[in-house]
Protein: F-box domain-containing protein
Amino acid sequence: MTGPCTLIRLPDEILKTIFEYGAEENTKHLSFQRQVVATCTKLRRVARQDPLLWNKVQFIPNSHSGELAELCFELSCSAPLDIVLTVTPEMQRRKPNTLTEARNFIRLVIIECDRWRSLVCEAPQTLIPLIEPLWRDDADPLAHNMPLLEKVSIQNTDPRSGMLHPTHSLIPVGTSPLRSVAIAYWPIFWDPWWHTSLMELSLGPFDSERPAPSLHDLIRLLGNVAKGLRSLTLKGRWSAQDENDNIEVVNIFPCLTTLTIFVWGEYSLNLLKNCDFPALHTLQLQLDVRIVQSDHLKDVLMGQILHGKKRALFESVIRLELGIPGGLDEEKSQTLRDAFPYLQQAELSGFMFLDTETVSFLSSAWPSITSLCLPEAELATVRRLLALREECMPMKLQKLRLRVARGMLFRDDYDWIASRVREWIIERERSALFRNIGQKLPVFKMSSLRASRVSEVAPIPGRFPRLRQL
Structure:
């Protein structure tokens, strides 16, 4: 297809599919839709008749947010709505009346709460309680009419605004078939926990002024959702709130495939001690440097968990995202080899370095690995890693991704690496020149060096005074 003249010949059903895919790939609110309806009469007609193009209602800090929401309500017909409210401190600095506009936006979208499918709220703690349908009200059990709600994500974007005590619990059981819940920097009543149908749960970060669930509440909560949970994320350093931290309640998560722990604490340790994950295949581990230095939980993890009775805990893991500040010594390297014998994909977090110890470890660890993501490094270091790995491992890497290429970029290094892997991607570079050895060449954009990349559609500039003409 070369342009609108070719597109307009397609049937309406195919055009709708193309438009819906384009809207999913372009997250900036209405940017893709505005381009479509501005193209020609037929595309405008088809787009206006497709409710799924207009069911994402997103707050934008300008005077037209209400008009945008009403437009989406009208064109989405009866389709389930995805509500997105994002209010950051930066937005408030740029536009002083952002909070007032956000309050008006909340009042407007609450009218359509019976159509909510998802709610993503990243806002200051003064706004979050205003989303009244989300919170349990024992005085009026019929006040919550959200039969379609599946996803709730709440994050306080102003966690330094003073002490905050829990005042609400999430909507009660039977109100909606919640599948995904994420709570960060926002305290709620965790007991009782109504939502046993959860498939995704993300908790944290929390702090002393916005307390996390107690260890007792967490164990009970996880016990209620263990049967169907697919993804579990624990973020932040939670301080223990129970007199007895050794609550030995064994939970089995038969369906859990993804476990993310950023960062370690008593909660994470208790979880690994007392729970089993027979279906786990993706594990994300990061150790905060403050915890490593003060509490030595890293040593406890390596010794007590992986070398103790739970040594086989992670044998089913095939994908690992790892972050250990300070690098890998010989003992940690051997522990990681033993703990993840069948690993196929590995990713090192951005705060790790490709130093000599890490290169040595990756060159001889995990023979079945096919995909590797590396942090910031020089191409020469990446080449040395692959050369050492070729000497030790029979299986070649299929995919190699480098987050940041630093130093001088030599064509010889780049071509050598490209000849050893099927897919070779450099996400970013900090070099000014791309050179052949001994010969200066013109500068290349890093996107031209990628084996694969995702293109982006630029939003149409301008504001929204003529939105009603859509």
About this structure: The first helix runs from residue 4 to 7.
